[in-house]
Amino acid sequence: QVQLVESGGGLVQAGGSLRLSCAASGRTFSSYGMGWFRQAPGKEREFVAAISWSGGSTYYADSVKGRVTISRDNAKNTVYLQMHSLKPEDTAVYYCARVRPGAAGASYYYTAGYDYWGQGTQVTVSS
What is the mean pLDDT of residues 86-103? Predict the structure, then answer.
């Protein structure tokens, strides 16, 4: 069983920055890609960013490209999401998730490409 625990969310003014963290249990963290999704009230969960098992490949949604950086520290079993120039429309619950075994890069953009999810952390951006 894999457990993912997000942290780092909070209230920030527009233009501000936040760094989210996702700590994973288990000894196989470094073998899997990881992703971040978000879900605003009344909306579907949407892809934000993903990173390959080695960190060598990263993927971003167009809505956050240039403002967000995903990274990972396999020694700490942790994946990060650094967000800058935050906008009110970035307000959502942010979830980290583990890429499903065997999933190809194209699957990283969809919730079906992930098998374990964290409980989420709230990010609120005030205008």
Answer: 96
Distance of alpha carbon 67 from the chain centroid: 13
> For the purposes of burial, counting CB atoms within 10 Å of the CB of 38, is it exposed (0-12), middle (13-18) or buried (19 or more)?
buried
Residue keyed to tokens 């942290």: 7
8-63 per-position pLDDT tens digit: 999 999 999 999 999 999 888 889 999 999 999 999 999 999 999 999 999 999 99
> Which of 19, 14, 2 is CA-nearest to residue 94?
19
User: Is-contact 38 94, C-beta < 8 A?
Assistant: yes
- Please tell me what DSSP assigns to residue 56: S
**Based on C-alpha coordinates, what's the Rg of the chain?**
13
CA angle 96, 11, 2 (to 5 degrees): 20
Q: Cα-Cα-Cα-Cα dihedral of 63, 67, 68, 69, to 10°?
A: 130
Token readout for 33 is: 């890609």
pLDDT tens across 97-115, in order?
999 988 887 899 999 999 9
